[in-house]
Amino acid sequence: MRGSAMPRHVWRNAAGLRHRLYEILDHGAIGDRSSLVVGRLIVALIVLNLVTMTLESVPALQAQYGPLFTAVELLSLVIFTANTACASGSPPSMRRTAI
Q1: Among candidates 66, 40, 39, 38, which has minimal Cα distance to 53?
Q2: Listed residue (93, 91, 96) closest to 21, CA to CA
Q3: Hey, which of 31, 33, 40, 98 has its CA 20 to 30 A from 65?
C-alpha cells in the first residue's frame, strides 16, 4: 500500500470514500502521501493568495494585472469551498468538536 493509508477497494462505497477524504483533509497517518500532497498544495494556495492580495494593493500592478488577480482569487475561493465542503461531509463520529 504505497502512498495510501487505505486500500483502493474500500473506496467503492460512499462511507469508505468519506472516510478517506476525511483522512486526506485532516492530515492522515504519517507517511500518507495523498494527505501530504493535499496539505502542501493548500499551504501553497494560501501563500499564493497572500502574495496576490499584496500585489493587488499596488495601483500600478492592479491596473496591469487586475484580471489575473481576480482569477487567482476566484480559483482560491472555489478550492477552499470544495475543501470545506468535503471536510464537513465527513462522518460525524470523525469530526472534531470544539470544547
Answers
A1: 66
A2: 91
A3: 40
For 45-67, what is the HEC assignment?
HHHHHHHHHHHHCCHHHHHHHHH
Q: Report the alpha-carbon distance of residue 67 to residue 65 in Å, rounded.
A: 6
CA 93 remoteness from chain centre: 21
Phi-psi region of 61 (alpha: psi -120 to 50; beta: other; left: phi over 0): alpha
Q: Which triple of cell numbers denotes residue 49?
A: 493568495
Q: What is the pLDDT of residues 10-52, one digit of tens each?
A: 456 766 777 777 777 776 667 777 777 888 888 999 999 999 9
